[in-house]
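Subject: Interface between my chains keeps coming out wrong

I've been trying for a while to get a sensible model of this assembly. When I model each chain on its own everything looks fine, but I need the whole thing in one frame so I can look at the contacts. Pasting all components below, labels as-is. Any help appreciated, I'm running out of ideas.
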Amino acid sequence: MTAFACIFVPDFPVQALLRVEPDLRSQAVAVLEGKAPLEKVFAVNEQARRAGIEMGMTKLQVEACPELVLRTRSPLQENSAHAALLDCAQLFSPCIEDAGCDTIILDLAGMESLFGPLPKIAHDIARRASDFGFEANVAVAANPDATVIAARGFPRVTVIAQGKEAEQLGSLPMEVLFVDGPDPDRVQILDTLSRWGIRNLRALAALPEIALSERLGQGGVRLQQLARGATSRTLVPVEPPLVFEEAIELEHPLVLLEPLAFLLARMLEQLCARLSARALATQEIRLQLELDNGSHTKTFHRTLRLPVPLLDEKIFLKLLQLDLNAHPPGAPIATIHLSAEPVRPRAAQNGLFLPPSPEPEKLELTLARIAGIVGENKVGAVQMMDTHHPQAFQMRRFVLEDVRPQRSQTSAAKAENFPPSCPQSKDGMVTALRIFRPPAFATVSMRDGVPARITCPKRKQIDGEILWGAGPWRSSGDWWEREGWSRDEWDIAVQQESGIALYRLVRDLLSGRWFVEGTYD
Amino acid sequence: MSSSSLCCAEMALGRLPGFLPKSGPALVLERLSQMPRLVAVTPASRLEVRPAPEMVSIGIRELDSLTGGLPRGCLTEICGPASSGRTSVLLAALAAATRREESCALVDASDALDPASAAASGIEFGRLLWVRCGGADVGPQPSAVSPRPSAFRHQNSPSGFDPPGARPERRSPGSAFPVEQALRVTDLLLQSGGFGMVAVDLGDVPFRIARRIPLTSWFRFQRAVERTPTVLLAITQAPCTQSCAALSLKLRSSAIGRNSSGKLSAIGSQLSASSHTHLFEGLKIEGEILRSRLERKPPQSVRTGFTTKTMPAG
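Reply #2:
Try treating it as a single job with all components included. I did that and got this:
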């Protein structure tokens, strides 16, 4: 048995805007289009319609209505809403037809065994559409055109049994057949039918077919078949691209980050719902803000790269907040674009006897908070450089997932951990060095070619006779580069209040300066 | 004494009308046991015995035999002056933890970690989160356009340190406040959970500053790791965690050198002029238990000694 469903979003331009402003759902809203001062009403919601607002009214006319909320049409948000509608439809069927920005047709053949009987599927579709921010009409019937007419004509959920199409559609007005657009031929046919006294589909369906064909041609016969719910066609399936973007054009530029967080929360909620509908997660979130700097506009980009695929809008929001706190846009925000790079969700098998390890979601948030305290480049994992320079290392992102393959450590990984400058101890523990950052410059007096006395202005405790010394250990490198280095190292012992302390004293042979690199501890 | 307390005492002693006087102590005990507040109090004989914590290896055989290892879910303090071997022990403990495939975090208040020493100790860097304190803390900026102008320190804290759980405040980018940063970072890491070892390195922080860290901060950390598999390790110059530490170790050392004749000797006893033929071999470290909650302190101090080996330069 063939079955089709149609999701129709009435007043789509209004609902596309209300997805990110759900507080306005209970108010009368009108969407304006056109260049000022010639803006006209393009779409209204039911409350506005009840208040007497009609499409085509000028802004001046509708401003007389005090409770009416006016918004400017946003093609960006309509595109996002349409993509969300496609994602919602994909939850229930892989074969969907994009019948318009506000209409999606689904092929439900075989879906009853997965989702239950057709009425249940219809209600489930309506509920999921509501989760996506739409108040949609859903209709289920045996042919696609009947579902579209039913969804446009009946509110909420309609289920038409096979063979009952003409009976159930009969009460609908003639206008449901002509909502595709201002087609001149169809307008003429509608005028003709109106003059004949045809007011609803039942009357049209009852007309003799041959006589109708003689008077209105094939267009009239086609309309009659639609009215009877007797058309038959196959769907034109679409494959929605895996693009997850949300955008908001703001009426007034945002100056504070706090209201921005509210908008980001709603956008992230929609993004996560869409990703979840496609059984995907994300590892990269891109934020693009168009800034209104008065005379000119500029674009501000931030990218959140996550170590593991996540799908938690609260974590995303907190990470974005921390990132924006550290890197404020610097100008009022006019437009917000948020996109997510889809990836497969993380599949991790935990075990009872694995060593303790932080949860990736919590760890990412903790690292972002720590980066906000100490600075971005001050937190992470050490990566040694392949050089003999004693202090050659760099910080990299601390990622737990990278650690797992190290169980069978390859030679390359070993080389990364133990570069030539730091041979690993094979027997016993090593004497650790505590580095002074920045190095403490010192004044050293020599006796018989060896350091005899040291004074360090920055570290008062390093002052006095050198009791013992070993060295020099000469090393150099990168002499073929501009950053060449050459140095002599001494290990020295200096008397302090707490006892004898050992330091590494270094003489930079290129500049001739002495400095204390650190203390042995 | 207030009238209500008098009434309670009289009720307890059975002097109120309607109560027949019984034998003194038995009556008092009977009345006391019926008072609602005292019913909720668990007798000392029925108190839950704290389970002995799991001990993990420090990575140094001598210290393991002295202390039994590092207790999980407890705060351990290792203190000692400069060049006493604290960092060597810290790196050995971190290396042992990373060898057990545990994730570790090092909160470095002085940004003093030498990656070459850490690598030579055998630390797997993929499992070590290094937080280098002393960087700029610009705090939250509510405005997208310009930051709020004032930069202020926590004025209400008598010690000058913000409590770890307090909301971070804005600081000017130049004002480094590494100890406070270290406390806040440690708090975040412990609350996040999941680390096998969290080490707080306050080794270069002068004792006059370290002792101003409120005891409540250490207590908060100790409570955060309680009943978790995390080993919390603090490196200080002198004991400052007091009763919050389950184990407190004091280290001291003497350097070992090799003179021109190839003979090993302690550097401290050698006050002659330095010579380039000398070789710094390592540290001879002595460890002493200052405090251990895990077992009763012996009547005389227990010490152990071990040596470290200096890696060749270049």
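Reply #3:
Confirming on my end. The first strand of chain A starts at residue 4 and ends at 8.
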